[in-house]
Design a protein that fits this description.
Creatine Amidinohydrolase, Chain A, domain 1; 6-stranded mixed β-sheet; 390 residues; Creatine Amidinohydrolase; alpha+beta
Amino acid sequence: MDLDSIQSALRSSGIEAWLFYDHHHRDPIGAAILGLPGQGLVSRRWYYVIPAEGEPRKLVHRIEAGKLDSLPGSKGSYSSWQELESGLEAMLGPWKRIAMQYSPRNAIMYVSMADAGTVELVRSMGKEIVTSADLVSRFLAVLTEDQIDSHYAAQRALDDILTSGFQHIGSRVRSGSVLTEFEMMTWFQEAMRRAGLTTDHGPNVSVDMNSSDSHYEATALSSKLIRTGSFLLIDIWARMDRPGTCWYDITWTGVVGREPTESERVVFALVRDARDAAIQTVRSAFTDGGRPLAGFEVDDAAREVIRAAGYGQNFTHRTGHSICTELHGSGAHLDNLETHDERRILPFTCFSVEPGIYLPEFGIRSEVNMITSRDNAVVTGRIQRELVRI
């Protein structure tokens, strides 16, 4: 835990204190920020408050009195619920405006780790509870130089694997041998393993109508053939196989053994233009004096392109997600559909840009990753400009 940085962030945000609370590991965000991975049994509630100024304070159950001993600060203890409530009120006494892992109306559910009853309890003590969402982004989504380097290492390896994958598909189809989505998925998994990459599942290798399922995953028992005439989508993600590395996550589309249809060309061009509108929105904000930019604004820019062309109902997911040491990270998502994400896109963060249009017969998504700095924002890998001819 970086206490000085947390207190500096609280002061700059106008927040008097940050209250962390856990029971049965309900708040992995807090555990990560405080440096409490692998806490073991958490069968009793604990509380830890970091003020903008002064010493942190702890409140722990006597049965698990050592649970927060790795953290700085004074310690109080309780056994009964009455002691808990009086101890918590005394611990929070000096501060009125307190951040918690809470989101008003559960708008940003990714940070809503504090249960309603605990929020009610703290409010009953005369406290104003504000969301910790932007604080969480600052301490869990901002990348180190090593993590940025690891992202680019994964990018170089995975871009090459995808190119080889397209070549392998073309060779197999031209030879007349049978090739399924599932077989190609396992081919990619093995190629990633050989390249020193790791992934959690997938990738999504889908043809024709399966490409309209944005979270499709082939199985050995249910898998379509990849053959001449197929429309193909590949969504693939990985990170370097060592602790603390940053993911790389891309989606490309193409056609096998033929030219695209007019409908495929039109839809791809719309998705490409929506992607580029989102990229330009981010880039302009960071090169134009660092204008504050919320995630929902970037989603709006992409979605407007697709909506104006009459395909709004076919763009069924957010424009992008935060990427860090988790594939779906703790920073701002590019989203004004599933959530109204008001979190700021911070310097030195990574995220996907991946608008899509999904029709009954095929779906097209074009996904790139971006990394921001203090005065710039760049796409980190290759950018698809037209449908791949395989």
